Amino acid sequence: MLKEFGKCDTSSFHIQLISKVINLNRYPFIRLIIENNISEKEYNDLMELLNGLNQTYHQQKEEGLIDFTTLLVRFAGMLNEKLNPNETIAALKKEGYYPSLMNEFTNIITRESKIRKR
User: Fold this and answer.
1) Is 106 left (phi over 0), alpha (psi -120 to 50) or beta?
2) Can you give the residue ranges of every domain in the chain?
3) What is the pLDDT of residues 27-61, one digit of tens each?
4) The whole model's pTM is what?
5) Which InterPro entries match (predicted)?
């Protein structure tokens, strides 16, 4: 048990050193994953969710659908509670993950924000 803690502690230290060398501002999604202590399983679940939403988005777009708010709601509802939906979308967009879907989500958020301000 003590060895496992030491190994984990060493890994954490190494990650801290690497994060000082790498400009994590260039990788905001990875930074969110690290800062919010997302596990490998949680990360894989998120990527699976995004992949599914992206496939649905492209299918619906081909079918002529123009409102994708339900996909955004599904994303926010199924997103790990450690992550903020808006921050996660912005980070994914900046790193180039699922660009069409993230642009759509950003447009919906912007449109909804303007409507609320009126």
Assistant:
1) alpha
2) 2-117
3) 899 989 988 989 999 999 999 999 999 999 999 99
4) 0.83
5) DUF1878, YhaI-like_sf
